[in-house]
Each structure stands twice: as structure tokens, then as C-alpha cells.
Write a structure and sequence with these properties.
130 residues; mainly alpha; Transferase(Phosphotransferase), domain 1; 5 helices; two-stranded antiparallel ribbon; 8% strand; 32% helix; 4 strands
Amino acid sequence: MHELIVVHRILNPGNVYLGGGGKAKFGRFKCLKESCGPGCGFSFGRCDVGSPMIIAPEVGAGYDVTPARDIWAFGCCMYYWCTGTLPDLRQLGVEKALKNVSLHFGARVRGAIRMALQTYPQVRSTADEI
């Protein structure tokens, strides 16, 4: 999906499913669209679709919707699956929030969450890297 520069836009724990072989499968493609900025005529000036706790910082600030937005949302999903709550990253920050993820999950899971929840989209990891 991201190779085609298409963004899911409403990724959240309720529409990610575990498929065969343990791979994540995504559903509910209601807002699927090509990446664009807030001035795009097809988005009616909006680029902030999604659950408020999961909207990436750059999208909330009005910047372009890119695949990095989905990576942020997936990081929020991983955090949710590990803790049972969505992270309040605007209040806590990533490092403080990660203290709520049990060490039981190991360094790889905690590292993947950290890679996905980088504040700046240009340093956020891609789906392949995670």
C-alpha cells in the first residue's frame, strides 16, 4: 500500500487483524487515499481523519498526509496491544510512555514501538523496517 503512496488514514487497534503466519492484516478502508496535503480538493481541506489519540503529530499540525502517518498509528496500535491503553504521547512523550510497556515484551517489540513513534516523520521507520 505504501509503495503506491496510498495511506490508510484510520488505522487503529479495531481494524488491524492477525492473519495467517502471524502477519498483520488491515481492514476498514473507508478513508484510503493517495497521500496529499490539507489543500487537496479531494480531501475537502481535511487531513486529520482518524482517532484523536492516534493522529500523527504532523497531521494534527496540518502537514501532508504521508505513509509515515500510518506508521505512527501502527505504533499506537502496538502500544495498545502491550498496555491495554492508547498512549497519550502529547503529554508523556515516547520514552516515558514506553515505561508502561512491560519488559516481558522484550527489546524488539519496545524498539519497534519506539521506531514507529518518532515525532518527526522523516526519522520515523518504514513498515519494512519495523
